[in-house]
Each structure stands twice: as C-alpha cells, then as structure tokens.
Amino acid sequence: MAEPVLARYEGLLIDMDGVVYLDSRPISDAIDFVREARERGKRVLFLTNNSRYTVKEYAARLRSMGLECDSECIFTSAVATADYIAENLSPRGRKAFVIGGDGLREELRRVGLELVEGEQAKWAELVVVGWDVELTYEKLKVGCLAIYRGAEFIGSNPDSSFPSPEGIWPGAGAIIACLEKATGRKATVVGKPNIFMMQLALARLGTAPDRTLMIGDRLETDVLGGWRAGMDTCLVLTGVTRREDLEGFEPRPDYVVESLKELL
C-alpha cells in the first residue's frame, strides 16, 4: 500500500479563503483534515493573502469552526506587508494612506506608520492598498493624488478576485490594478507569491521547504509562491480555481484534489 501524501511532510502552510472556509462557512472536509493532520504531529500555519481582518479575528473565526487556534497559528499578507515596510522603508513616523481593512491598519501601526485621512492623505509618503469592501471613488482619488506626488505604492496581495458562497467578488488585486492604470505606476506587492512572504511563513512554521506542503486554491499565488520557495504544492478545488484552469499553467501543482481528505 502506498504511503499517504501527508506522511511525506512535517509542516503544512494552508491558505484559508476557499480552502478552510468560504466567507464564514466552514468547509467540513478541510476542518476534519486539519484536525487529523495535527493528530499525526504535523505543524500547521494558516497563511492568507486576505489583509482585511486582524490576526486575532482570524484565530477567533477558526476557533468558532472547531479548530484550536491562537494568533501564532495565523500569518497574513498584512503582517508580511508591515514587515516588508519595516525592513525596507524606515516607516517610523512616516505618513501613510491606507485603502484596506482593520487587519492592514493594525499591522501598519505596529511598525510605526502614522495613518492619515482627508487633506493630509493627498500628501502621504506611502499608499498601502489591500482588500477594501468599503471602497469609494474618493479613496481611489486620494490614493491616486498621493502616488502622483511621489508616495511609495505598496499592495498587500495580488488576488484579483475573492471566493464567496454567492460567487466571485473583486479582490485586492483589482483595486491595485485600478490605481496602477490611473497612475502609470506599478505597486510593490508583498503577499503570495512574493518570496518575501513565503520565507517569513516558513521561518514561523519552523520546517524545511522540502518537508513542507503549501495548500491553496489559487495557481497564481499559492502554487506559484510555494514553488518559488522550494515547497511541494497542493491545489484544492474548493475555491477559485477549476480543473480546466490547470491547462497551460506552469509550474504544475504536485497534487490536485477535490477534497483535502484525499491527502490522508
């Protein structure tokens, strides 16, 4: 009998939206899979490109679905974006205009940025963009003005869409693309598949790349990011990607499953 796929790995990096749940609805097979993986001694880190919510909110959401989880189990693109800015842009005391949710705002304050609104925002030194379900033309206008005036342009993640129970919604990547088109400037985008975020996640998990499996529902972020970091990858078809989307995509995921239970 062939050994189960899970036996080959010490650690799992698991995306959340479209993998563990859809919006607030848990995917039962995924919940069961995580429990079983932990019982078999696997290290698990939940890795999401969604910067809208705080780490504590994500942990509470997973607990409400029956998974033991604290803040150390969660790594978001908001955390990675703030860490990138701290490492590269000397943020303390600098002014930033944010298009995004509380998760992104909290992490940017953590590294010392002063978040500004109104007239001040047009002169911000950084414009940081994530997923914003309260997006307005005014926010886009202010971001555009600041970028034109020389602000650093940072994106939390490139996901153009967001999987929900009712279908596909616009994601952070769509908002970033709007500002890129308007300003003629390309954003520095930190989230998956950026190797910066992948390496930070591996360091947090504490396992070697060749003993870690990246599990996600997106080819262009989860699979590509895992491959870039030297990990095997698993695409699960519960979120955005359909089986027909695999045609012509490189790198190919190592595993493609309808349910994470297949890995057991």
Describe this structure in words.
The chain is an alpha/beta fold and 264 residues long. The protein has two domains: 114 residues, HAD superfamily/HAD-like (Rossmann fold, 3-Layer(aba) Sandwich), CATH 3.40.50; 112 residues, HAD superfamily/HAD-like (Rossmann fold, 3-Layer(aba) Sandwich). The chain is 35% helix and 21% strand. The chain is built from nine helices and 15 strands. Helix 3 runs parallel beside helix 4 and helix 6 crosses helix 7. The longest helix has 12 residues. The mean pLDDT is 96.
Order of helices and strands: EEEHEHEHEHEHEHEEEHEHEHEE
Residue runs with pLDDT of under 50 for 5 or more positions: none
Could you estimate the helical fraction of the residues in percent?
Answer: 25-40%
How many separate domains? Answer: 2
CATH architecture of the largest domain: 3-Layer(aba) Sandwich
Q: Taking all residues together, what is the mean pLDDT?
A: 96
Tell me the distance between the termini.
13 Å
- Outline, from the CA principal axes? globular
What structural class should be given to the helix and strand makeup? Answer: alpha/beta
Strand arrangement in the largest pleated sheet: 5-4-1-13-14-15
Instruction: Report the strand count.
Output: 15
CATH class of the largest domain: Alpha Beta
- The number of helical runs is 9
CATH topology of the largest domain, anyone?
Answer: Rossmann fold
**For this structure, what is the CATH homologous superfamily of the largest domain?**
HAD superfamily/HAD-like
User: Mind describing the biggest β-sheet?
Assistant: 6 strands, parallel
Strand content: 15-25%
